[in-house]
Design goal:
about 220 residues; 5 helices; about 15% strand; alpha+beta; five-stranded antiparallel β-sheet
């Protein structure tokens, strides 16, 4: 599989392109540009005759290349090529591509397309693509691990918060229990005092019935 053609466009406005060999690739590509939706980022492949077009859309800018073997399953090479030129293009021009006129970057970036196309067409390109894929996988794992650590940190903070809440609740419960215990104690004291008072009243009534209200009867019986 060989990358034969590459371009960078905003809608139907071609900003830069390079052709590895002669052919009607630009004409076919212009027709294809009118059918590609740039309202959302993504990547796609189209088969046309004996060629296959791969493209990556990012921030309404299209990065496209054409290869000569539509039956090839090695699509990581052209997509790594597109990602490489996308990063170089964004690093060089930034937001200029959003307002640039047609072929505004072709003089400067056309040679970059040529150089990177030759690099990715070399026999070592597939090995390089595999290295890029492994690096991306390692990066994804690192990001995932960092997210897990951050998530674990959030869970630890949540656990600490819950522990603090439990400690505060336990303190409040202990304080309430102490107050309740004191209230029950004084309630028992009041009950005992009331019982004692009632017994004293009953004893007085009993003695008053026998000895009289002033206890003179009991005193007179003792004197006799």
């Amino acid at each position: 599989m060989t990358i034969l053609y590459a371009l960078i466009a905003r809608g139907k406005t071609v900003l830069a392109e390079y052709t590895f060999t002669s052919g009607n690739f630009p004409t076919i590509t212009r027709l294809l540009l009118g059918k590609i939706q740039l309202d959302r980022d993504g990547k796609m492949s189209y088969v046309y005759d004996q060629y296959i077009f791969h493209y990556v859309c990012h921030d309404h800018i299209l990065y496209l290349c054409m290869c000569d073997d539509p039956t090839s399953s090695k699509r990581r090479v052209p997509f790594n090529f597109l990602e490489d030129i996308r990063q170089r293009f964004v690093a060089t021009y930034g937001d200029q591509a959003q307002t640039a006129i047609a072929f505004a970057m072709n003089h400067e970036f056309g040679p970059v397309l040529q150089t990177q196309m030759e690099l990715f067409n070399s026999p070592s390109a597939d090995s390089l693509a595999q290295v890029h894929t492994k690096l991306d996988a390692v990066k994804d794992v690192m990001v995932q691990n960092i997210e897990m650590v951050l998530e674990r940190g959030e869970k630890l903070e949540l656990l600490v918060d819950k522990t603090d809440q439990l400690n505060a609740t336990a303190f409040t419960f202990e304080k309430s229990s102490r107050k309740l215990k004191e209230a029950m104690f004084w309630k028992k004291v009041k009950i005992y005092l009331l019982i004692t008072f009632v017994l004293c009243v009953l004893l007085y009534v009993f003695l008053a019935v026998i000895c009289g209200p002033d206890f003179k009867k009991c005193d007179s019986s003792k004197k006799k």
